[in-house]
Amino acid sequence: MSDRFTLLGVGALVVVVSTAACSNSCSNSNSSSNSDNRQLAPPGAVTKLEIEINGGFAFIPSPNDKTLNIAYLNSVRVQEGSQVVCNVPQVGTELWVERGIVDDYEGTEPLPGMRLFDLDGAQLKFPKLESADIPLKTPRKSWQPNPLKPANHADPAWGDLQYVPRIADHVGLTDRKIKPGWRNHPNVNGFMALKGGTLEGLTPSNPIAELAQFEFKVAGVSQGLVSGTDRAIYRVDVPDDKIEIIFTGAKHGYKRLVLKPNSANEAVRLRLTGLHAMNAPPKDGDELTDFCAFHTLLEPPVDSSKYVRIYYKAPPLPSNGVAMPSPGFFCDPNMF
Questions:
Q1: How far, in whole angstroms, is CA 332 from its chain's centroid?
Q2: Separation between Cα atoms, residue 100 and residue 226, nearest integer Å
Q3: In the predicted model, what is the mean pLDDT of residues 190-196?
Q4: 39 CB-near residues (< 8 Å, 6+ apart)
Q5: What are the pLDDT digits (tens) for 254-303?
Q6: Mean pLDDT over all residues of the chain?
Q7: Which of 249, 254, 296, 328 is the most exposed place for a label (fewest CB within 10 A)?
Q8: How many other CB atoms are found less than 10 A from the CB of residue 235?
Q9: Residue 180: Cβ-neighbour burial (10 angstroms; 0-12, 13-18, 19+)
Q10: What is the dihedral sign for C-alpha 299, 304, 308, 314?
Q11: Residue 295 in contact with residue 50, Cβ under 8 Å?
Q12: When comparing pLDDT for 206 and 136, which is higher?
């Protein structure tokens, strides 16, 4: 749901970790012939993994198997009769290796420049998490958030996932569940599966939106005016001396990526970004229309008259008279 310009900003221009540390297997390859050379980790080895998540993702916890799925969508167009009731064009999803050393790579295309992976069609899994028994924690208070608005940027209240919207929180929709076959739903482009670990909220990606609030309405009736965020952080200790990622179905041919920390006790850090279209910045009272797409993944089906709709409520004008977020903000995620 966004253009590269809006969320990646200049950060992608200052990466100083060279990919030269990658072995010769980092060239494109159609096989995993180097798998016989993979070394076992020392006993008790642990690597910290952090993933910052920005944008309109579907957070789908699966408590039974302790797995957090983070799904990204295709373009969504819903028509009721002759009327289009939801139209969300998608730009794409990217995974950036923000911190860490590329130790190994396999794929039908070369390792992407700037370690920035286009995840079109990709399903990602982390084998060492799959085989571990790590609790999954997704701390979240029920509607309405408390406090309704965090006091400031440093307020620890942002860490509670209460500021990530959830359709099923709202009147008339509390019985809605994610469709059992959501992985194969035509509106789902791909997903990342993370077994165990902790997901927490972060302050919004835009400082103006941090000061703003958002009004939730169902069938035209206000459900409250609260803060909201488009960012979250996932953390886990991976039982290995490296982070291995397996890609399935990636349209750019990625197969396997292995990362090691830059130094001992430092986390490997990734950034998962849902890209935004370069639309005009929202004005006070504008609806954040991209949110409608998440309703298509629910059952029983949701008629558009019952959609949860979110409206941007601008903060008081500063002295320069300007108080609006950047064009790419705000593409809300949704908790299922």
A1: 10
A2: 37
A3: 98
A4: none
A5: 999 999 999 998 999 999 999 877 667 788 999 999 999 999 999 999 99
A6: 87
A7: 249
A8: 15
A9: exposed
A10: positive
A11: no
A12: 136
Q: Give, in order, the Cα–Cα distances in Å from 89 to each of 44, 71, 149, 215.
A: 46, 16, 30, 23
Cα separation, 10 vs 8, whole angstroms = 6
Q: Is the backbone of residue 36 left (phi > 0), alpha (psi -120 to 50) or beta?
A: alpha
Read off the pTM: 0.86
* Residue range(s) defining the domain that contains residue 59: 4-335
* Residue-wise DSSP of 66-103: TEEEEEEE--EEEEETTEEEEEE----EEEEEEESEEE
Q: Which range scores top for mean pLDDT: 27-41, 77-91, 320-334?
A: 77-91
**pLDDT at 191 exceeding the cut of 70:** yes
> What six digits make up the tokens of 257?
């990526």
Regarding beta strands 47-54 and 231-238, do their DSSP bridges make them parallel or antiparallel, or are they unpaired? antiparallel
Cβ pair 166, 57 in contact under 8 A: no
**Measured distance CA(37)–CA(24) in Å, rounded:** 12
Q: How many domains does the chain have?
A: 1
Say how far residue 106 (Cα) sits from the centre of its chain. 24
Give the pLDDT confidence score for residue 7 in this predicted structure: 30
Residue with tokens 């709709």: 309
Helix-strand-coil split of the chain, %, nearest 5: 20, 35, 45
**Comparing C-alpha atoms, which of 220, 12, 246, 205 is closest to residue 113?**
12
Dist CA 35 CA 250 (whole Å):
20
Per-residue pLDDT tens over the stretch 295-311 = 999 999 999 999 999 99
Which pLDDT does position 332 carry in this prediction? 80
